[in-house]
Amino acid sequence: MKKIIITGSTGFVGSYLLEHLVSLKKYQIFGTYLTEESYKKLDYLKNNVSFKKLNLNSKEETEKLISEVKPDIIFHLAASTSPAQSFKKPLETITNNISSELNLLEAIRKEELFDTKILIISSAEIYGMVNRNELPISEKTSFKPGSPYAVSKIAQDFLGLQYNLSYNLPVIIARPFNHIGPRQAEGFVVTDFAKKIVEIEKNKREPILKVGNLEAKRDFTDVRDVVKVYLSLIEKGIPGQAYNIGSGVSYKISKILEILLSFSSAKIKVEIDKELFRPSDAPELVCDSTKLKNLTNWKPEISIEKTLKDTLDYWRNII
Fold first, then answer.
1. How far apart are CA 122 and CA 247, in angstroms?
2. For residue 120, which of 149, 157, 95, 154 has the smallest C-alpha distance?
3. Crossing angle of helices 90-110/59-69, nearest 10°?
4. Phi-psi region for residue 93, left (φ > 0), alpha (ψ -120 to 50) or beta?
């Protein structure tokens, strides 16, 4: 039975990846977490997953875990994940995302685990401020990072490539576009809209929804579809290669808000708040996932409407 480590396993994407792998009943799964709070949320998985508290910024802790487990597969999900927050904490975002991956790759190298497959989660944010004539975005599109987060993800992307080229580690790079769904943390557009709508429904907030840039267009995929393709990339991906993951359809943020509001009977006034705008924000990001589809035949199965409805219902159940 192959041994899998998922870093950041108690996070938004990590928890769904754990559920998917557990359902397959063919792996021995180890999940890392950083805080007790995040760990407590996954009580329902503790019979099927060995959870390990780990600070990936600690070289010693990381080396100890890799030495003990000697994994066959690693999904490296742990990272500071918010582009918006990265403008407020640029040094923390860049330092954390680079050092955690570096410690992980070095630990694998030192243990001489040269057959361990590693999926590094980069981001479509690395493409950044693309021109309209560059759409849809393929893996060959140049990088124009629009946030400190994007810079950190370029570093993660290239660190993975460097360890593949230098030490022949079988590192594969995933570049997901926006992925959304129930359980996503606050600070992301769909979650923030959904939570505020539910608070208004339950009279916990006045019926005014303050929003940032509604004109930006983004390519959204349900997180439950994304985690399936992560496993496909481990199974079929070519080491040293990067793969874009997205639906190939972009939606204006105003359209996403319109769909969410259509699921609510509350009367809500929408107000633009310039304070919620980012210093830089690409007008449109839309994915060309031809390379991925040719490799795996993957395509998203969950509609944008279902994802948004499920996200709203998630907040309705906890507020």
1. 17
2. 157
3. 40
4. alpha
pLDDT at position 276, please?
A: 82
Where do the CATH 3.90.25.10 domains begin and end in the chain?
Answer: 189-217+250-286+303-318
Q: Is the pLDDT of residue 280 over 80?
A: no
Average pLDDT over residues 73-81: 95
Among 264, 248, 265, 242, residue whose Cα is nearest residue 308:
264
Question: What mean pLDDT comes out for the span 2-16?
Answer: 97
d(CA 30, CA 230): 16
User: CATH homologous superfamily for 2-180+222-248+288-296?
Assistant: NAD(P)-binding Rossmann-like Domain (3.40.50.720)
Q: How far apart (Å, rounded) are the C-alpha atoms in residues 290 and 255?
A: 25
Q: What is the mean pLDDT of residues 213-223?
A: 95
Name the residue with tokens 């924000």: 281
CA-CA distance, 251 to 254, in Å (whole number)? 8
Determine the pLDDT at residue 81: 86
Q: What is the mean pLDDT of the chain?
A: 96
Higher pLDDT, residue 224 or 40: 224
**148-167 and 90-110 helices, crossing angle to 10°:** 10
CATH architecture, domain 189-217+250-286+303-318: Alpha-Beta Complex (3.90)
